[in-house]
Design goal:
The protein has helices at 12-23, 38-41, 49-63, 73-89, 96-112, 150-153, 158-161, 173-183, 204-212; strands at 3-7, 27-34, 67-71, 119-121, 126-131, 136-141, 164-165, 217-221, 227-231, 253-258, 263-267, 279-287, 297-301, 309-315, 321-325, 337-342, 345-354. The protein has 9 helices and 17 strands.
Length: 355
Amino acid sequence: MKKVAVLLSGGVDSSVALATLVEQGYDVEAFYLKIWLEDELSFLGDCPWQEDVSYAESVCKQFNVPLHIIPLQKEYHERIVSYTIDEVKAGRTPSPDVLCNRRIKFGVFFDHITDEYEKVASGHYARVEYNDTTSLYELHTAPDPVKDQTYFLSHLTQQQLSRIIFPIGHMQKHEVRQKAEQYNLLTKDRKDSQGICFLGKISFRDFVKHYLGTRTGNIIEFETNAVVGTHDGFWFYTVGQRKGLGLSGGPWYVVGKNVTDNSVYVSRQYHDEGKERNSFSIDAMHWISGSPSNRTELAIKVRHGVHYNAGTLTYHADGGVSVVLAQRDQGLAPGQFAVFYDGTCCLGSGVISKS
């Protein structure tokens, strides 16, 4: 009987994943990863981690499964929070949840458990398949395009994939809810979590403000170099942003930032044909199952969601990649992850360095 460590969040997805494994006869133990920075961010608001744990405990009690709470606040701050703040401070757009999966959930957590656990399971919507021809593990999309989470899993390694299972990865969300009803789980009607995993109900803006504060700067029209307003810090804005600018006569879009003089550049001509916004560079690609250097046409996501864009790739000797998209994209920003697909197979990802 395989022993499996299940990452339990207190939500319906991981609860059904656990229940499914128990039903299939696996020897299961559950683990809740405590990453909420309780001492540092408590004044900003409450994180529902204690509520999450109570739900997790109820599910474990129902199936007579041990639950372990693993404190990883220190590791999370060092590997995710610091990265996020550094990226924002540099004027880039970070993707903390992508690195959380590689560095924390399927990273340092592996160091906290022994080899007696043959597999680690979670409630992610994705599939892991072993390719007999290449002798490599592959990451594939879930059949539910809205819930598919391969974007956030695109930086995982072969070593990690070899140990991971996604028990609900082949299911649609409504099927997971139905399963939760059948098992009569306490989590069956619980809403899905939104936003960055460690912030809970705290807004990303408040989080950034806590670390970087505010500093008045100019909002400048890109085409005329005229000052059209002021802002509280370039770190509150990202390329392609339309809401929250406080400017009349729009719509206005953020088109750039100057981190040296704290300026934010905006335009009302964001969608003009002359503004291509269809190419970017990646300095170092992470390929999950080997570089597909024979493939120059791939599907690409530059953010989590259902939308793919066709793209043409040029591979460079230093491991970098240049990409030209078939269609313009509203928000290509340095720091974002671009994720590459061949059909259902998620090939890997890299951080946009220039757009």
